[in-house]
């Protein structure tokens, strides 16, 4: 029997790799996804986000490593099938089906399917029930996926680029719905997106995947606290430019701005020297981190 407080991670991957013929899409990925939290899965194009989500949902086999749901392998695990909902950015197998049939299918697939909520969402998004999935616009296809993801009420919901094709107004509607629904029905949500700044408010945790490897898995606050813009006199700041904590540097007319990644032990001293210290927005931080790591891996390749 388990303790009252269940410490078994709901979903985790341990040293998971996935190779497709010549390509290693995911490499030694290890992370434990905290319960009842929204996780942002961030990575550049081709970093391995979609492959990782397929692996976590048990829809493809890993080449090596373990993927565990409630401590048991996700594959051939009826509990995992019933409790993990993976919303792909496009559902190729859905093409010939009408929206109403897809909703029926979901109601049979997910034991906690909330019919009333699904109908409310279908009305909110004005989705035509009689139209085939393949004849929906790109944004409407995303909305069908969103209805599935939210109304399934699965313990784990994986969204791969859920807002593809949605206009700004509809994206905001989705973010608001997700926050509202999550606060009423907490569960584990992992959401991959390239629209980092506008979705940053959703994330309690950030998982960064780079060239197939999970390089960071941290609470968003902790993640953001590590990044700082340092701006001030070039003669002071350029002395730091070779420091490995510096992700990016730009100078103009005697003023330099650095992006610093890590603890700032000398914060007081820098302020005293007239250096302005500011937070870095998440999207910018993502760009600086991935560029820096890409540069380091390219220089390792040259060596
Ligand atoms: N079925 C497959 N066969 C061969 N290679 C694949 C397959 N699926 C993915 N890959 C490769 O694996 C790598 C990771 O792809 P993946 O789609 O997981 O990345 P991603 O982070 O989701 O990218 P994007 O943000 O561009 O959608 C890429 O190099 C891709 O070409």
Automatic annotation (TrEMBL):
Organism name: Paenibacillus anaericanus
Gene3D superfamilies the record matches: P-loop containing nucleotide triphosphate hydrolases
CDD domains found in the cross-reference section: ABC_DR_subfamily_A
Highest taxon of the lineage: Bacteria
Family annotation (PANTHER family): ABC TRANSPORTER, ATP-BINDING PROTEIN, SKFA PEPTIDE EXPORT ATP-BINDING PROTEIN SKFE
Key words of the record: ATP-binding, Nucleotide-binding
Any Pfam family the entry gives: ABC_tran
Protein's recorded name: ABC transporter ATP-binding protein
Claim: Membrane is one of the keywords in the record: no
MF term (GO), any: ATP binding
Domain ABC transporter: 11-236
SMART domains: AAA (SM00382)
